[in-house]
Amino acid sequence: MRKTEELIKESEKWGAYNYHPIPIVIESGKGVWVEDVEGEKYMDMLSAYSAVNQGHRHPKIVDALVEQANKMPLTSRAFHNDMMGKFLKKLCETTGFEKALPMNTGAEAVETALKAARKWGYEKKKVEPNKAEIVACKNNFAGRTISIITFSTEEQYRDGFGPFTPGFKTIEYGNAKALEEVVTENTVAIILEPIQGEGGIIVPPEGYLKEVRKITKDNNVLMIVDEIQTGFGRTGKLFAFEHEGIKPDIVCVGKALSGGLYPVSAMLSSKEVMNVFRPGDHGSTFGGNPIGSAVAIAAIDVLLEEKLVERAAELGTYLIEELNKIDAPCIKEVRGKGLLIGVEIKKEYGGARRYCEKLMDEGILCKETHQQIIRLAPPLIVLREELDWAIGKFRKVL
Ligand SMILES: *Cc1c(COP(=O)(O)O)cnc(C)c1O
Predict the structure, then answer these.
(1) Catalytic residue among 36, 99, 119, 226
(2) What is the pLDDT of residues 265-318, one digit of tens each?
(3) Is the model's pTM score more than 0.90?
(4) Residue from 119, 125, 237, 255 carrying the catalytic annotation
(5) 199 CB within 6 A, ligand 1
(6) Ligand 1 neighbour 120 (Cβ under 6 A)
(7) The CATH number fitting domain 59-305, selected from 3.20.20.70, 3.30.70.270, 3.30.70.260, 3.40.640.10
């Protein structure tokens, strides 16, 4: 038996069967490339669902992690540490928000935002106790906690996990009128992704976010934008909501804030919203820890110093153009923004999974989402020549 099968067997024997990975066992990586246990090299076109925008093992981010690990890794929030303030200052100054609350995973950042919105609703909007409503959009993805899957419309994500959390409504994505119709005096927030990532790289109609911003302002409802997958340059802007020139009340960030090294997430907002939290209201043992803070500072620095936002814009346009030139009858549509791209395969040509497996045989790693869509999201440090190589492979496989 090859090492690959052995290792897959081992993790299947001891682990839960909650994922169905592409059959490759990765051992090392650098930049855009990873190597498996058989010594084969692959281009990473998934970037851990956009957590590795800066590329694998970026030396500056690794140095920050190692240095902090050798000095002071974890204090808990029972005490102050000398890194968290620096991290939050950098995060707020880079993003233009007044305050940030650090957590670890994306789901926790979303939970934090939901709690903030509810408390804001009771304290500032004067919603009656326990009546707050939060609106979400169909086909969303915001994580896997019970409250978050409450507003998922994906049957499998919910099946067997009820009862769910009250206080959520779902409406059509991309249709601002639908929001107008469900808003009541108890509505405290809408949560949405600027582009639905897990949902299949769904880009809403132009003007949608702007309209939602207007409706939320007019009705004193908070606009929560989940930028966990789209943030930090992925779509060719620092945040995808910038494509429409709006500013949300709350932004959830995660994934690439970690530089692909160590989980760091956060909720960003104004003082008015953040100040609803008081000591004891909310917390996390690891949130805001010194290692995470040091890593996130370096991850943001790399993003800015290496102009990864601009690179994503330029190379994304190029990649979409080149993919559109591929003349293959199986392609239904190529769509996306920046380096977050979906290639939808026509149903009669089978699911996207077999295309991902064929691409793996050709040295490219990507993963299907929602049966028919191949998601392409290489690290933003990818070179144009590397993309050209990949395009050749896509042409062959498609
Ligand atoms: C990945 C993701 C999350 C959840 O992040 P985790 O770190 O897996 O908890 C939330 N929202 C969006 C849009 C995501 O892509």
Answers:
(1) 226
(2) 999 999 999 999 999 999 999 999 999 999 999 999 999 999 999 999 999 999
(3) yes
(4) 255
(5) no
(6) no
(7) 3.40.640.10
